[in-house]
UniProtKB/TrEMBL annotation:
UniProt cross-references to Pfam families, sorted A to Z: SBP_bac_8
UniProt keywords, alphabetically: Signal
PANTHER family: PROTEIN YNJB
N-terminal signal peptide: 1-26
UniProt name for this protein: ABC transporter substrate-binding protein
InterPro entries, sorted: SBP (IPR006059), YnjB (IPR027020)
Gene3D superfamilies the record matches: Periplasmic binding protein-like II
Amino acid sequence: MKKLTTALGLTFALASGFFASNFAYAEQQTSTYSSEIVKKWQQIQSKADGQTVYFNAWGGSQEINAYLRWAAKELKSRYNVTLKHVKVADIAETTQRLVAEKTAGKNSDGSVDMVWINGENFRSMKLGNLLYGPFVEQLPNWELVDKRLPVFKDFTESTDGLEAPWGVGQLVFIHDKQTLNNPPQSFAELLSLAKAFPGKVSYPQPPEFHGSSFLKAALIELTDNKPALYQPLDIQKDKILFDNVTAPLWQYLDQLHPVAWQQGKRFPSGTTETIQLLDDRQLLLALTFNPNAANAAIEHGTLTETAQAYAFKQGALSNIHFLAVPWNSSAKEGAQVAINFLLSPEAQTRKADTSIWGDPSVLKEESLENGSHGFSLFQPIAEPHPSWLTAIEQEWQRRYGH
């Protein structure tokens, strides 16, 4: 992919000049803002001046961490907003902290100002009334978002303006064309590959995000009752349904694990380790939720140039990842300014650059510097209802956790 070497600078300028150019650009690209929205955003931006935003986000990628350091520097210099990246292994930790604050009646001065979420964590926060909003439609750069993407639903759950889209994720595999020129095109073929080459196939250990996504994608292919996966599941009432729908998955894993890497007694910690094991030729396939990950890894020298990302014939499990603000944040305005900046053409174009992060943009193509989302979308497969994930993870742990 062609490297992006220049910044747009169309949406953001210094001080008051930024606000004018921001709306001018949005108006040029889309619709005209009402004076009420303009006035409200001016007030938000004024209150944001001097605020510190504690951003809870996954910290397992050097590239993402570096990107957020760049964003923090820009936010400080342009708006006097201090963005502090609080690195977490799993955003569920943040959800639990917010639940504890809610239970304790801490309705102001919360420990979290901004979160990177989707799926079951968004559903938990929404149902627990842990989120501020709706706020998304008052963001100036919301007008630039490509509404053809599934930005109004998060794992079947309506977003209701409580979270802003940030990027596009798809579950894809990476193979090295030199060592595996004809990779499997289905989970059935993946099992055949594992049996033919024992110890060369694995997946991250659930409940790590990529490992859990592997389980969901496998279940979608293997079950004969796909519609059930898109309906809410009450495991107490629907245990028989759950057992019937998921039985093919456990039968599959019972066959896969004995011929998997480390005989299924140990699993990679996440996508980064699968990529390292692929590069070390211990695995034939790596797993990622970024269709640009192979190109990004090649750019950073962590994979050979013959590495390539692909999806199975059934398509790729796909979703949007989002940014949200907790209900008890003391820096709600600063968080909104930060989110709006991260939705700017400049920030989204930089994010899609495979030499920097390679995360696909959620903006309309004409809003981006190179006129492209920065990725080729594989055939998308919708995420199951988030209630299924918790039950699947718990059953996996019961059967295979060590």
